[in-house]
Amino acid sequence: MPNDEVKNQQSEVAVSSLIETSQNQGISFLDFDTLLNMLDASYDSFSNCNASLGEVLTDTIEKKMEVEVDVQTIYEDILSEGSDKIPKLNREMHSRYIHEMLNRPLPAPFSKLDASKTWIAFWLMNSAALIDNLNTKEQNNAAKQLMYFYKTSSGSKNTVAGFGGGLHQLPHLAASYAAVLALLLSKNENAWREIDTQKVKKWLLQCKNKDGSFSMHVGGESDTRAAYCALCIAQLLNILDDDLRKGVADWLIKCQTYEGGFAGAPGDEAHGGYTFCALSALFILLNPDELMVSGLNLEILIKWTVDRQYSLEGGFSGRTNKLVDGCYSHWVGGTVALLELLINYNKYKINDPNKYLSLIDRQRLQNYILCCCQDTFGLRDKPGMNSDFYHTNYVLCGLSMCQHFQIYDPSKAQKYGNAFSAYPIEIEQPNTITILDDNHVLGIDAIFGVPYVTGLLTKNGGKSSIYITQKRLSYNIDDEIEGINPLSDLPKNVKPLLHEFNPDQKTHPILIRVTDGNRDKSKKVKLSTVVEPQNLAIFWKEYTNIIKAGFPGLKKKSKSKKKVKKTSKK
């Protein structure tokens, strides 16, 4: 319609102006220099409080000033010690925290989180996966425990199924979302097979409302979280159809506020978490071209989102005039990643990641995470707070967002659906962010918030799907990776969706990093069918284990077995 065209043109002009302004301001500084620049926005100027001198301070503004003092003190102490004292990601201590909680019963005070057991499993497993050390024992134990919370119930019309947050609890969309993602991380095909997807679909339809929204449980509250959780569950179980899609996008668009962000429901206040849920849900339903003409006001959404980053702290707040919080590194940061994909692909038609436009200052955010969000064990909201499972996971997700751009692949969208159309690529722009090996975390899926996958496995009949997560290995940069053809070792009914995979070619690029310890020389590896495997025995063994872990029990039949079978028939 003409009005839509005018709005889109105005939006494009505004987006261009916003990006040009950020570039002219020179917002990218690295490590030490960035930290120095961040201190220019001192708490004495009330830079982030929106309060004039002499104005009566609210409780929120006073608390915000206290946080700024704490953050500034931390930054000043680090700068006084020199550029080599900027903290690194304490992988060892965070790993101990994560695995300690994954491998023992939780202490008594956690009883108040009895309805959040699927969430606890997801937060811990995803945290371990992001720093690349989730082990098979933990995966199998988690899968076993999670299936205790899988519940089927018979009503007057249908038998339905979903996950409760704990034992003997009603199916709940948030609990089911966390359980499905945790099972995906477990890569346990046996547990995945136990889910009756058609019963889950019936339950999702019971949770759906006439206006296109979803309720968290039958008779429960409706908000954008519920819509996002329902669509993620349906997409991952391969049951997303027109009945579940109908009216959802229109309802989500109504949740965008005058500020630009999305609220939980029409008429409420814009919030970082709800904004991520709404935009991610729209990306599941619509491709970027459709999204641009859906009624989404891109101009004010971008402005509201980038305004969530504070100049002194470097981190994000979740709402206007609220405090910085490490978890919004994911909720707002994930929104940033999707918006960047949208404007780089749709607006500027940029295909080269080295020319991608960044909407935020990634180095500032990484500084906040490394300097202010690390507790002795685990990660936290802000200085003065204790670490917890929730913040450990979402701060690590935010760190991943800092280090990667999301690339849109229309061929994947056409073949596998919109939800699987984007993949992360590590940022190599020297003026955008510095990524040390010690601080590196895996790239995450922009929609689902789990480590990105090199392959999507679909069971026979298309009833459900499961991921194989990426693996980060190190080898000498001069080694030739040859003599391997992983496709020949896969069952015919299972094919990996490798990045840029072409079945007619003999080389198959995969997301595995090869480095000699110098990240600047690191590169992706191509697996070919040429012979030269002597230096790659360990690599092939690990890669094979990754493949097999995705679908235990599926093995290619050997020629000897076929011969025995033929002989027995004769």
TrEMBL record:
It is found in: Cytoplasm. Keywords: Cytoplasm, Metal-binding, Prenyltransferase, Repeat, Ribonucleoprotein, RNA-binding, Signal recognition particle, Transferase, Zinc. One of its GO terms (molecular function) is zinc ion binding. InterPro entries: FTB (IPR026872), PGGT1B-like (IPR045089), Prenyltrans (IPR001330), Signal_recog_particle_SRP14 (IPR003210), Signal_recog_particle_SRP9/14 (IPR009018), Terpenoid_cyclase/PrenylTrfase (IPR008930). GO terms for biological process: prenylation; SRP-dependent cotranslational protein targeting to membrane. Binds 1 zinc ion per subunit. It comes from the Eukaryota. Its cofactor is Zn(2+). GO terms for cellular component: protein farnesyltransferase complex; signal recognition particle, endoplasmic reticulum targeting. Belongs to the SRP14 family. Heterodimer of an alpha and a beta subunit. Catalyzes the transfer of a farnesyl moiety from farnesyl diphosphate to a cysteine at the fourth position from the C-terminus of several proteins. The beta subunit is responsible for peptide-binding. This is Protein farnesyltransferase subunit beta. It comes from Pichia kudriavzevii. The lineage of its organism: Eukaryota, Fungi, Dikarya, Ascomycota, Saccharomycotina.
